[in-house]
Write a structure and sequence with these properties.
Immunoglobulin-like; 3-stranded antiparallel beta sheet; 1 helix; elongated; A-crystallin/Hsp20_dom; Hsp20/alpha crystallin family protein; HSP20-like_chaperone
């Protein structure tokens, strides 16, 4: 079963959008943030992430380059996985000509469609990618029942 790809908080698309639309969505998000976000609180952005499913687990891989493990919070409520944190503004080395790397608060949410084993969730950060493995519950589907009597 394929999982929906959720790129931004509030995105309810059931299938991944074409990559060609990413720049358009990014520009629309920036315009909306500029128009509606207050100067004191900026809307969180969502890191790029892949969600896949194996026979025994859901695997979420989120790109978080430059962050340390204590700067990332991963939580699970019911079947919704949330990854949050903040990328701090780095000091500029000389005159800055272009700024494309995102800073500020980020939030990524994904709803997992099947039953999960919340006690065995594992999160690892390596090479700028956070990998969260959420095991599925193990339930016997078929079972032979002995007739007694």
């Amino acid at each position: 079963m394929a999982l929906p790809s959720i790129h931004r908080p509030g995105d309810t698309m059931l299938t991944p959008r074409p990559r060609a639309f990413d720049a358009l969505y990014e520009q629309m998000e920036q315009l909306a943030n500029a128009a509606f976000a207050s100067t004191q609180t900026e809307m969180p952005w969502a890191p790029a992430a892949d969600v896949s499913e194996t026979d025994d687990a859901y695997v979420i891989e989120a790109e978080l380059p430059g962050l340390k493990k204590d700067e990332i919070d991963v939580s699970l409520h019911d079947r919704e996985l949330t990854i949050t944190g903040e990328v701090k503004e780095r000091e500029s080395r000389g005159l800055r000509h272009r700024k494309q790397r995102r800073t500020g608060r980020f939030e990524y949410r994904v709803y997992l469609p099947g039953d999960i084993d919340a006690e065995r969730v594992d999160a690892n950060l390596g090479d700028g990618v956070l990998t969260v493995t959420v095991p599925k519950t193990t339930t016997e589907k078929d079972r032979h029942i002995e007739v007694k009597g």
